[in-house]
Amino acid sequence: MFGFGKGQQATGARVSSRFCTDRFNGKYPHVGLYDAQERKVWVCKPLGGQAIRTSHARLITGTDNATSTVWKDRFICYWFYTPRTGEGLIHGYPIEWDEGQLLIRIDPNWDYDHQRLIPAELEDQVNENLERQFRHGDRIFDFFCKCKLGYPLSVHLIGPRATDSLFYVKRYEGRR
């Protein structure tokens, strides 16, 4: 009926195995994606030392450059900095760059689970949405804790504005 033969599936965006892996050794800063549907963390491969400078949209395949940014809205984006690889303020807030830092994008009005925009005036739904995103952030954090990093790591939930952000939400002390 929809033009898919036996054994065929609809094509679409997915995380690129060329650029991403589901394993991490703790040795390099990178960007990554979290698939809210599959509840899976994807780590950008080292890419010759440029993993932190890679765009999140580049990590997605099955699209072209014109649509990959739209498909990116299906994934929660994050940035992982190993100690002494970041610098400056985040939304005007000081960060301790001598330690590992995990910055996870949150959006009060975008529902990653249902792929829809939530109007700001629906405050109960916005708050429920943020709670789901916090749980997703916990899963991303747990992934890195299971990597048994040898350094402390702090998690920050970064919204569109400083007032939408939460800094130093959780901390992992590092394997001693």
Question: What would you note in describing this structure?
Answer:
The structure is a single chain. With 176 residues, this protein is α+β, with helices and mostly antiparallel strands. It has helices spanning 65-72, 123-146, and strands spanning 14-15, 20-21, 30-35, 40-44, 60-61, 75-81, 89-90, 93-94, 100-105, 110-111, 116-117, 153-158, 166-172. The strands form four sheets. It has a seven-stranded mixed β-sheet, covered by helices on one side. β10 (110-111) and β11 (116-117) form a beta hairpin. The radius of gyration is 17 Å and the shape is globular.
Describe the main β-sheet briefly. Answer: 7 strands, mixed
Q: What percentage of the residues does DSSP assign to strands (E)?
A: 25-35%
Coarse structural class: alpha+beta
N- and C-termini, Cα separation: 59 Å
User: Helicity, in percent?
Assistant: 10-25%
SSE series: EEEEEHEEEEEEHEE
Number of strand elements: 13
* Overall residue-averaged pLDDT value: 88
Physical arrangement of strands within the biggest beta sheet: 2-4-3-6-9-12-13
**Count of helical segments?**
2
What radius of gyration results from the CA coordinates?
17 Å
